[in-house]
Structures are given as structure tokens and as C-alpha cells.
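Input C-alpha cells:
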């Protein structure tokens, strides 16, 4: 079984046909990313921290509990996606800074964070007026 913490071996099989080789590599990387995600989701509680959803791993996402404020901070490539998940698994960042959220809860949280940020700018006053109307 794939262990993301120790697996660094080249497990790719060489194909003579470059198209077959490319297809093999794409599938290999896809499976590797999924294995990393399964491991980190398990480590962080295996379900959405808000609503408890855990039916399909594809709808579960890793959330920075303290949000990265888009626009004000530069998000580095190693702090998102599989690279971030590997850092969590390897203990290079405190796992307590992250949680599992389902796509719905994550979208709602992100929206609320953005709304708070928008509130600080009078330019976005119209957003809150629209929300007050239930738009
Ligand atoms: Zn949820």
C-alpha cells in the first residue's frame, strides 16, 4: 500500500509508447494525490468539522482554520493542495491549524470571511445591503 510519508521511490514503469507512458504517469500521480488526501483527511478527523459529512472524499477539503486572506497575503505553492497535505502529514506544520470541511461548509466559510473583509471597505457596502435582502 502507498505510504505518503515514506514513498519516494520511482514506481513508474517504462512504456515504449510515449502516449501510453504519459497516460500511465497521469494515473500514477492522480492515485498518489488521492492517497495523500485520504491520509490527511483521516489524520484530521475523517469528516466535515461543521456538519459531519463524510460520504465522498472528493467533496472533502482541507481548510486553514485561520483563513488565508486572499489579496492581502501571497499564497505560496507549498501552502495549498497536495504540497500542504504532505506538510501536514509530515508534521512540518501544526495539524491543529487545519480542519476537514465539506465543499458546502468550506464555500460558506470562505464567503463569510470575504464578507467580513468587504465590510471594512465602504466600496463593498452594497454586498451587505444585498445580503440583508436575502439575495
Ligand atoms: Zn460540512
Amino acid at each position: 500500500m502507498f505510504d505518503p510519508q515514506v514513498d519516494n521511490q520511482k514506481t513508474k514503469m517504462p512504456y515504449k509508447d510515449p502516449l501510453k507512458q504519459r497516460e500511465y504517469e497521469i494515473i500514477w500521480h492522480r492515485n498518489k494525490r488521492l492517497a495523500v488526501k485520504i491520509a490527511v483527511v483521516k489524520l484530521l478527523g475523517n469528516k466535515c468539522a461543521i456538519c459531519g459529512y463524510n460520504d465522498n472524499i472528493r467533496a472533502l477539503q482541507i481548510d486553514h482554520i485561520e483563513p488565508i486572506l486572499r489579496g492581502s497575503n501571497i499564497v505560496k505553492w507549498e501552502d495549498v493542495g497536495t504540497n500542504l497535505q504532505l506538510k501536514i502529514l509530515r508534521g512540518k506544520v501544526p495539524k491543529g491549524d487545519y480542519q476537514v470541511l465539506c465543499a458546502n461548509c468550506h464555500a460558506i466559510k470562505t464567503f463569510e470571511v470575504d464578507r467580513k473583509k468587504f465590510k471594512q471597505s465602504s466600496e463593498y457596502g452594497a454586498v451587505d445591503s444585498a445580503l440583508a435582502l436575502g439575495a
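Residues 48, 50-51, 53, 101-102, 104-105 surround zinc ion (CB under 6 Å). The chain has four helices and two strands.
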